[in-house]
Amino acid sequence: MNAVSPAFPWATVGGPNGWQNLNARRLFKEVVVRSHGDEPLASATQERGIVARDDLDIQVWNPESDTSNYKRIEPGQFVISLRSFQGGFEISRITGILSPAYTTLHPLRPDLNEFYRWFFKSVPFISAVNSVASGIRQGKAIKFEDFASLSLPVPPSKDAGIISAYLDRETGRIDALVERLERLIALLTEKRQAVISEAVTKGLNPDAPMKDSGIDWLGEVPAHWEVKRLKHIVVPKGVQIGPFGQFLREHTVDASTTKLIGQENVLSNDFAKGDRWINDDQYEGVPRYWVVEGDILFTRKGSIGKCSVVPPMMGRAIIDSDTIRVRLDETIAATAFVRLALTQSTMSEVQTRLNARGAILSGVNSETLGNMVLCLPPLAEQVDLMTELNSQLQEFASAIGRVEKMITASKERRSALISAAVTGQIPVAEMIPDTQPEDAA
């Protein structure tokens, strides 16, 4: 048995009888075969291995029309990708061509392919790869020599087959459970949105008198509610897009008294992010762009459903050109109610679909936002409605949180199971399914 560095977890375990530890260069070789010109483009994915780009559900940008220098990949070969320091190596089931930035590994023991398919995705292996390829988080690719310096566990071929079949079976069960749990979250999320939509368009009193809203997609609303556009429930110039042009190019990264608020703050709901500042004179000259506590900020890029509310103790700040500030008239509109109606009900989705520019507004402007229709109960009722609705939403949040914990625990169990199996910590005999027939009744 070859000497193995104790830095690698599978070496310290010792391994079952009959297992070896060999340098990776004795088990794999790097191959470079250029494209023959007729192979399909392929991509490395952490979930599905190497797949044809045409089979991906997303568009992959290919800046190089000339693929003559691309590398050919064959079924049964492995690939070191640009993200292998995060998710391990990928196996190919297809013939195709990959970017020359990838490293192709040809197995010298193809009978162990399915074992290494699992081993290369295990936490101990990924940790070992990171330990010998310092600096990869800053963009350094994992080279073959980095990998070749590692010692790998080598089980007998029969054991390897049992282990891979066991992991296929057990992880399949876990994956099926996770899929069911994720569907449950989707159903809970859908139900949550339906509850919100009902509350902000019909109220919480099913016996309330109703009236025709005059809008086909909205239908009836409570008789004492009003149907208003957003621009009619804000203060003067209450819907304001940020400044364009030279003004924003004159900001500094030195912390000053006035901060520029933009998309990164809105999307993350974190107003401490960012390092763009302007001086006092600039701030005093643009009062129309100031933000204050309670302002609702929308990102101008993407869908209307992305917004944040300016928190207390924000300090002096202005919005940038990718942000729209909404300042409500607090005598008729409650911030929490309006935010919920605009961002978490189906109202904005319906109105966006009806908008001539399509379901995703690549450049939401103040006019588009200001024309959004809302159903508005009296102010006191808005506050009461939110109190009651928040109680229901908390129940949804708790239920979704419990399911998310189950998903996390299942994925952790899956990862631990893989690591234990490929490092010999689970006796092979325990991995063989019981196929004994049941006793006759």
Automatic annotation (TrEMBL):
Stretches assigned to coiled coil: 167-198
Q: Does the keyword Coiled coil apply?
A: yes
Query: What keywords does the record list, in alphabetical order?
Result: Coiled coil, DNA-binding, Restriction system
InterPro entries (UniProt xref):
Restrct_endonuc_typeI_TRD_sf, Type-I_RE_S_subunit
Q: What is this protein called?
A: Type I restriction enzyme, S subunit
Q: Does the entry feature the keyword Transmembrane helix, yes or no?
A: no
Superkingdom is Bacteria
Species this protein is from: Yoonia litorea
